[in-house]
Write a structure and sequence with these properties.
The protein has 194 residues and is α+β, with helices and mostly antiparallel strands. It contains ten helices and seven strands. The strands form three sheets. It has a three-stranded antiparallel sheet with strand order 2-6-5. Helix 8 packs across helix 9. InterPro entries: BTB/POZ_dom, SKP1/BTB/POZ_sf.
Length: 194
């Protein structure tokens, strides 16, 4: 619309065009802004830290790996599937939303070539993922949003673009991640009152 107005100066006054350009620039500035959501205190649990490293390595997919855990010092050791740690870490609705599936080599080949929301290709190699059960986080919500929730759950700060904040708030609410939901709502309120 703006180029058309610029070609026909009689269609609108110059001040209107300048005001519209300023509004567009302000909108562009706000969409470029990244907000940082403070996470709870860093997770001290070595198993959760290890799981977080696995999550980042597998680019939005959580491998069905068994982790050796001890609940408290005098307890006998127990073995838990890694994805149960998410539930223990305070994201109760996430487990029920995950789709557990056994990947065939052909399925994993397809998934390895797909790009996620951020434009990165999944690093899975066909021979590594053949016959392995994965929890596909992309079935829950946008990969970036799930990743943000998991970062928060595991004590990492979350950077999110201002225009994505309301979507992240909805995902956090859906997954019952109360802390992140509160943080998002506060940031949204702050943006409206600026």
């Amino acid at each position: 619309m703006l180029p058309a107005l610029a070609q026909h100066p009689l269609a609108a006054s110059p001040t209107t065009t300048i005001e519209e350009k300023e509004e567009e620039e302000e909108e562009e500035e706000s969409t470029k802004r990244n907000l940082t959501l403070a996470a709870p205190a860093n997770v001290l649990n070595a198993q959760l830290d290890r799981l977080w490293r696995m999550l980042t390595e597998h680019d939005g997919q959580l491998a069905d790996v068994w982790i050796y855990t001890v609940d408290y010092p005098s307890a006998s050791p127990s073995i838990l599937p890694a994805h149960k740690c998410i539930l223990a870490a305070g994201c109760p609705a996430l487990i029920s939303r995950l789709d557990t599936r056994r990947n065939s080599s052909s399925t994993s080949a397809d998934s390895s070539s797909e790009e996620n929301d951020d434009g990165f290709k999944s690093p899975f190699e066909t021979e590594n993922s053949s016959g392995v059960s994965y929890l596909d986080l992309r079935d829950v919500a946008s990969t970036w949003a799930v990743r943000a929730v998991l970062r928060y759950v595991y004590g990492q700060s979350v950077d999110v673009a201002a225009e994505r904040l309301s979507e992240l708030c909805e995902v956090a609410k859906d997954m019952q991640c109360r802390g992140l939901e509160r943080e998002c709502k506060q940031k949204l309120f702050d943006l409206r009152t600026e």
